[in-house]
Amino acid sequence: MSAVIQAANINKRYGRHKVLDNINLEINSGKIVGLIGPNGAGKTTLLQSLLGLGVASGDINVLGEDPRRARSKMLEQVCFIADTATLPRWMKVSQAIEYVAGIHPRFDQALAERLLTKTQIKRTSKIRELSKGMVTQLHLALVMAVDAKLLVLDEPTLGLDIIYRRTFYDALLNDYYDGDRTILITTHQVEEIEHLLTDVVFINDGKIVLNESIESFENQFVKLKTGPESVAQARALKPVSESRTLSGHEFIFENVPRERLASLGELALASLAEVFVAKVAPTVSAGAHEESGHE
Ligand SMILES: Nc1ncnc2c1ncn2[C@@H]1O[C@H](COP(=O)(O)OP(=O)(O)OP(=O)(O)O)[C@@H](O)[C@H]1O
Fold first, then answer.
1. In Å, how far are 83, 109, 119, 144, 178 from 93, measured between CA atoms?
2. Which of 141, 181, 203, 283 has the fewest CB atoms within 10 Å of its CB?
3. Span from the CA of 45 to the centroid of ligand 1 (angstroms)
4. Any ligand 1 atom below 6 A from CB of 181
5. Angle subtended at Cα 212 by Cα 208 and Cα 214, rounded to the nearest 5 degrees
6. pTM of the full predicted structure?
7. Is 45 in the pocket of ligand 1 (CB under 6 A)?
């Protein structure tokens, strides 16, 4: 397995604001990596730095090239869709397809057309006649039809309804991903990508706070559901978060052996969203703890 992205000591400032704070990241081929962080965490800035679209200090190597020196060569093997991507409004859908076919040697026009048949978009429509969600669908169809080694998606399903979001992620996994390609994806809708990721990276305030394969994530974190009788014992084992539910209490633990927890209640897998909230918003869970301490 070879490294597709290697980034070491990446730093970036806007004035006095440190937006990327000594980021180190390595992503191997065949991985589907979720880059997850709250608003303003630095996700887009990091993606842009990795693709040479923004200037950051540090060592960056993407598919064997330094994107700051050989950006066009690197981009031949990369497909990128930004959350702010636009298409010329006067163009017809058919013209947009022909345009990409003309500039991208690895574009599969028939595949793009096939993907569009899963939407309401007509080839004869002008871009300005499409809804916002349909423009995104068109973008995604164009991007997924490019045979790239690395696909970078920044909030790809923003503004899309749940039915199309599901269709898109199904297509990404079943039609696009071949086990060799690498996909780096940012989204706020963590629950929707959880099942397709091989690896997860949490970023907060410009720093990576978690970087694990899903397998090791599932070993590391566990959820305990318990009744009031075991709350004190559970708290003594230092959960990373605690919340009240209708039926009792739920705790998330990090690196606490399951044998120590099993007698306190029911154990379950902790979801990415639950751990994300626990790791990235500790003040919120501390508040929940205080509240539940009154009983
Ligand atoms: N051109 C700029 N000038 C000044 N500050 C910027 C600029 N671009 C981004 N920032 C700041 O850098 C930080 C990271 O922004 P970035 O867009 O990378 O976050 P993000 O994680 O992608 O957020 P979101 O999920 O809201 O899109 C934010 O605090 C933002 O205000």
1. 20, 12, 13, 16, 27
2. 283
3. 6
4. no
5. 135
6. 0.87
7. yes
